Amino acid sequence: MTEDGSKEVILEMTADHLNSGLRGVPVGTCRTSFVTPTGGVHYCGYPIAELADYDPEDIVFLLHHKRLPSPSESSEFRNDLARRAILPRGIRNTLRSLPKDGHPMDWLAIGIQALGMSGRCDEWREDALNLVARMPELMALIFRIRDDREEGMPNSRPELGLVENFVHLVDITGADKRAMTRVLRVFLVLHMDHGGGNLSTFTGKAIASGHADVYASMSGAMNALYGPLHGRANQSCLEFVQRIGTSDADAVEKFVRAELVAKRPIFGFGHAVLRAEDPRAAIQFDLGEEICPDDANFRTIRTLREVVPKILGEIPKIRNPNANVDIASGTLLHHVGFTDTAYYTTFFGWARTVGIGAQIVDERTVMRDGKGVPLYRPKYIAEQQQEQHVD
Ligand code: NMX
Ligand code: MLT
Asked: By three-state DSSP, how is residue 26 classified?
């Protein structure tokens, strides 16, 4: 409302807004995070760079409670999550029945849906937190069953922490567990949420608006995350980096220009909302300089970061030529022992279960004085009826 009581006009709609993927069209409010074009994502008002080194559990608390926990709340919340980390019995059989050549994101979407079939309690917040608590073991089972390493999987120890329990359960041979834990903790925090309108979050909330439960909504959100222009860009980006195979600036530039001529995306660059380098990219570059400055992939992405913005900047239609969150995450995951790129988006999905879950809880139980956002139903205009604007 404006001061004189009239309703504020937020957006004048024109025909240019049609078929634009809802770009810039406001559809609601978001309580967990916002993204500014140059400052990137802020969780409940905190710029992401201030939160990168927090315990992931504290950021789960933040996104649900809209404030950071006190030390005693933090430890009580960790205990609460640990108590919730009980997987329903049938889940292993469901996973064992899946084709191993399916993509790990297929497994994740099916795994989450299956967790809901026998583990949901049909209370939005309870289900959202239970799912977060159960993700480390689900993730480890996906890795181990696909790798024929289910036998010998140790007992789950949720009291260790979300990431620590996953690292304990997945037990990758030869990996430096401390480095793996460090990278995954930062990865989780950076990827938990990104405003209300990113494709997977929007999809999850849309499904939940029909009162499907948290698990079914999240499974749909994971399928939205699956595409290479959204979450799967982290897999595609490392594969792209490995194809480049050099950190020589001239060779990298030649490679990138040839990709553009072939009309292929330059993965790890560009964004629907950001108009500067993503702070999450800068945080991961700093981490890489600390833990793997001489890693071959890291040297290539360092060169890409220097060379690509200038090249993409020459193409007027590209609104943001700078690095996004996916530029460095695959390189870091690879360095600490996750050498199969196909798994990278499952880590993104794991992290997003937190933000998407918290946003679903808000839309279902807080918005409109607790009544919840109604069933999503945007308007489409039939092409032959565009003159009359009939729905
Ligand atoms: N490489 C090649 N072309 C690009 C790129 C890029 N990195 N970024 C934008 N474009 C093209 C885009 O395809 C579009 O072409 P057209 O008009 O012919 O359809 C044009 O430039 C305008 O795009 P923008 O308005 O700048 O960006 P848009 O919001 O449409 O797309 C992305 C955003 C992220 C889909 C796009 O930048 C992209 O494809 N990037 C590479 C893939 C990637 O790294 N995705 C991860 C994004 C982060 N995430 O996790 O979701
Ligand atoms: C991201 O994390 O960058 C997103 O999910 C993509 C977006 O915000 O559109």
From this structure: coil
Complete domains list, the chain, with CATH: 56-231+342-365 (1.10.580.10), 233-335 (1.10.230.10)
Q: Which band of pLDDT confidence, cut at 50, 70 and 90, is reported for residue 1?
A: low
Summary mean pLDDT of the chain:
96
What is the pTM (predicted TM-score) of this model? 0.96
**Which ligand 1 atom is the nearest neighbour of the CA of 268?**
44
**By the 8 A CB rule, do 227 and 320 touch?**
no
CA angle 109-112-117, nearest 5°?
125
Distance separating alpha carbons of residues 161 and 58, to the nearest angstrom: 11
Ligand 1 pocket: which residues have CB below 6 Å?
A: 229-231, 233, 265-272, 317-320, 324-326
Q: What is the separation of C-alpha 88 from the centre of its chain, rounded to a whole number of angstroms? A: 25
CB contact at 8 A, 37 and 276: yes
pLDDT at residue 378, rounded to an integer: 96
What are the pLDDT digits (tens) for 83-133?
999 999 899 999 999 999 999 999 999 999 999 999 999 999 999 999 999
Atom of ligand 2 nearest to the CA of 278: 3
Under DSSP, is residue 47 helix (H, G, I), strand (E, B) or coil?
A: strand
Taking phi first (over 0 means left), then psi (-120 to 50 degrees means alpha), and beta for anything else, what does residue 40 get?
A: left
The β-bridge partners of 42 are 34, 47
